[in-house]
Design goal:
The complex is a heterodimer of chains A (312) and B (395). Chain A contains 11 helices and 15 strands. Chain A is an alpha/beta fold and 312 residues long. In chain A, 40% of the residues are buried. Helix content of chain B is 66%, strand content 4%. In chain B, strand 1 and strand 2 form a beta hairpin. Classes of the chains: A alpha/beta (312), B mainly alpha (395). At the A-B interface, strand 4, helix 2, strand 6 and helix 3 of A face helix 1 and helix 11 of B.
Chain lengths: 312, 395
């Protein structure tokens, strides 16, 4: 199965929120979607679901286009589930009834409901009315509902919202299991390091478009990622000519690319950095949170190389 | 199982729905008790009044007008009328039926008397040369009413029924209740139940309910039908209890007792149970139309009060045609009030003889088709999370 979005443009009156979005998702993939609040993540999901009108573009599943007709939208909804908002649950229904409802409506089969409840460790509260649930319990319930619907494509907006670390791990594991089952999962989340645990690619939205795609399985440039205070940075800049493409994140974190360094140079730089008693030194490619800070936060690059050139 | 089961669950757990159902159930089931509080004209009182009028005629018409062959004939007829009214009065006061068992040899049958009274009145209409003709005929029922009276007595005779002396009898109250239910009460009940059927989902459960793979149209039908079943379960149960209370507190009456209905050519009499079935059948059809309308509007408007106002307002649409002359008996807007159509008052009021019950059935089906067409188009819009609908764009 594949999900393809071509030239998707969404606007609210004159304000263009999404501009000519192009996406292609294949079987057994988890795609992360990252952007600050109000930059169009939910609009993208809503547009794919056809919950909002789109100004232009095409939505294709397995190369078949799903247009804006009632019939096509209905077929689309058989293949894609949208992660419910925990505030929208039926307060006078139990959690189990919610899960059964989704299983019943999409699959007409409730046999897996108990297994889902156990897998998400919801047995202790699932029989109670939703009105008694905490935020985290509701969020797990919403996740369980999507699993119960068992559609080949799942759009999970803010899936980790309100979950404690233990449940974040649990949901992350289940997402990986679903991926192995061949689902296409599109996840938006603000837990950036967590996305690196299960997402295959991470899309960064900016200015209405996909600004940058971070593919975790592509060979990536290796960096020294170091935390330095201002004095240490001045000392480093004084003694060491940093290569083009060096990125400074949030004033204190430096990411120094090693691509053009020889082994000897790498070693010398390493020894120099260690000699400064720095707080943290990590070797590896940039992660989602570093890309995020670079794209949306307070960062600067050494001239000659921009971030979108690093991975595009 | 699909979505129907879950729509039921939502519906039955909704406190607003529960309260409305209980309120209407209490109203319907206690109707006969309330009805007994009304002051009605008893048939006995009506006959007494006729007796008094006839007696007054003897005093008002100058004696000289009763002279001559024609005058004497009128005099004899009026005297006979008065005697017959006297007997009718006596029969009704004894509450035994059409005759008084102990007085069979003296007192005639109520039905025969009634038929003779009506025939006499028709004869009196023909005596145009009588000097006080205008005065005489001013107290007579018109020809049409007299023909209906004859048909009424004939019906009672054919079905061997007794005259109903008790307007509070179970069968009488029963059809009065059905007449009330299929009027504005039907619009109120349906609109109160349905005016927020989609609104609640769209305002409170948007993301849980928007993406389910069941068409809006199917959900519209399902939800309307469920409300219809609930509505009529409560109504039939309530009517049954009210009828049972009537049987316990009053005389039974007869479900075969004649009720006048309009057939396009004139008035004919049908049994009470037939009349009730006709009203309930039309009410069921009309209520489904109203529920489809209210449920559909709740998808668009999302303001329960506005939806209720609009739906109840539909009931009063026929009033427009009292201000503006209607152009055809095929106008669907003439068929939103059941009782006036069935009884023939709509035909009389709008001056269109062919406003009939069977046409109402056809036009209610036309209403269904019109609503299907309108909402098929409406459901092609997108219900937004906030308010209103957005047009899907061609892409």
């Amino acid at each position: 199965m594949s999900l393809e979005v071509k030239g998707l443009t969404v606007s609210y009156e004159d304000r263009v929120v999404l501009d000519n979005i192009e996406l292609s998702l294949e079987n057994g993939q988890i795609i992360g979607l990252v952007a600050p609040n109000g930059t169009g993540k939910t609009s993208l999901f809503n547009a794919i679901m056809r919950f909002i009108p789109i100004r232009a573009g095409h939505i294709l599943i397995d190369d078949k286009e799903y247009k804006d007709t009632a019939k096509d939208v209905l077929e689309l909804h058989k293949k894609i589930t949208f992660f419910p908002d925990q505030a929208d649950l039926h307060e006078n229904f139990s959690g189990k009834e919610h899960i059964q409802m989704y299983a019943d409506i999409w699959k007409k089969d409730k046999s897996k409901v108990d297994a889902i409840i156990d897998r998400l460790q919801m047995r202790g509260y699932v029989g109670r009315k939703v009105e008694t649930y905490s935020l985290g319990m509701r969020q797990r319930l919403c996740f369980a509902m999507v699993i119960a619907a068992d559609t080949p494509i799942m759009l999970m907006d803010e899936v980790m919202n309100g979950l404690d670390p233990e449940n974040v791990n649990l949901v992350s594991k289940i997402l990986q299991e679903l991926k192995r089952e061949g689902k296409i999962i599109f996840v938006s989340s603000h837990l950036l390091d967590n996305l690196d645990e299960y997402a295959d690619r991470i899309l960064f939205l900016k200015d209405g478009g996909v600004h940058f795609v971070y593919d975790r399985y592509e060979a990536a440039e290796v960096y020294y990622k170091v935390l330095l205070d201002t004095g240490q940075q001045e000392k480093l800049f004084e003694k060491w000519e940093l290569p083009d493409g060096t990125i400074r994140l949030n004033q204190s974190k430096l990411c120094i690319p090693l691509t053009n360094y020889t082994n000897q140079q790498e070693l010398e730089l390493f020894q120099f950095l260690r000699g400064m008693n720095i707080e943290e030194l990590e070797v590896g490619s940039l992660g989602t949170s570093e890309y995020y800070t670079h794209l949306y936060g307070n960062s600067e690059s050494k001239p000659g190389r921009q971030l979108n050139e690093v991975k595009s | 199982m699909g979505s129907a089961k879950w729509h039921w669950q939502k519906l039955l757990r909704d406190w607003k729905t529960r309260i409305i159902l209980v309120a209407f159930f209490l109203f319907f089931s206690s109707f006969s008790l309330f009805y007994r509080q009304q002051k009605l004209d008893l048939p006995l009182d009506q006959v007494r009044e006729q007796y008094r009028i006839t007696q007054q005629l003897f005093h008002i018409i100058p004696e000289t007008h009763f002279e001559g062959e024609l005058g004497e004939e009128v005099y004899d007829l009026l005297a006979q009328q008065q005697r017959l009214y006297g007997m009718q009065r006596y029969i009704l006061s004894e509450k035994e039926g059409n005759t008084v068992e102990a007085m069979v040899s003296v007192v005639d049958n109520y039905l025969d008397n009634g038929r003779i009274i009506a025939e006499n009145q028709l004869l009196l209409w023909e005596m145009t040369d009588f000097s006080s003709y205008t005065l005489l005929t001013s107290v007579l029922p018109d020809h049409e009413t007299l023909q209906q009276d004859l048909a009424f007595y004939q019906y009672l005779n054919d079905h061997q029924l007794n005259i109903e002396w008790n307007p509070y009898s179970a069968s009488q109250v029963f059809y009065q209740q059905v007449e009330l239910i299929v009027g504005v009460v039907l619009f109120l009940f349906a609109s109160l139940l349905a005016a927020d059927r989609f609104t609640q989902d769209q305002k409170k459960n948007w993301s849980v309910t928007q993406g389910i793979p069941i068409s809006w149209k199917k959900q519209w039908h399902q939800r309307s039908m469920q409300l219809w079943l609930l509505m009529w379960s409560v109504t039939v149960l309530g009517m049954g209890i009210s009828y049972a209370i009537s049987l316990w507190r009053e005389t039974a009456g007869s479900l075969w007792y004649p009720v006048a209905v309009y057939n396009g050519a004139g008035i004919e009499y049908v049994a009470t149970w037939q009349y009730i079935l006709l009203l309930v059948g039309l009410g069921m059809l009309l209520s489904y139309v109203i529920l489809l309308l209210a449920t559909g509007l709740s998808w668009i408007i999302r303001n329960i009060y506005l939806t209720i106002g609009l739906v109840v307002g539909v009931y009063f649409i026929p009033s427009i045609w009292q201000l503006v002359e209607p152009f055809s008996s095929w106008q669907p807007s003439l068929y939103l009030q059941i009782v006036p159509v069935v009884r023939g008052t709509s035909a009389e009021q709008f001056g269109l003889a062919s406003i009939t019950s069977w046409k109402m059935m056809l036009l209610l089906i036309v209403y269904l088709l019109i609503l299907e067409g309108i909402f098929t188009a409406v459901f092609n819009f997108i219900p937004t999370k906030t308010m209103g609908l957005k047009r899907r764009r061609a892409s």
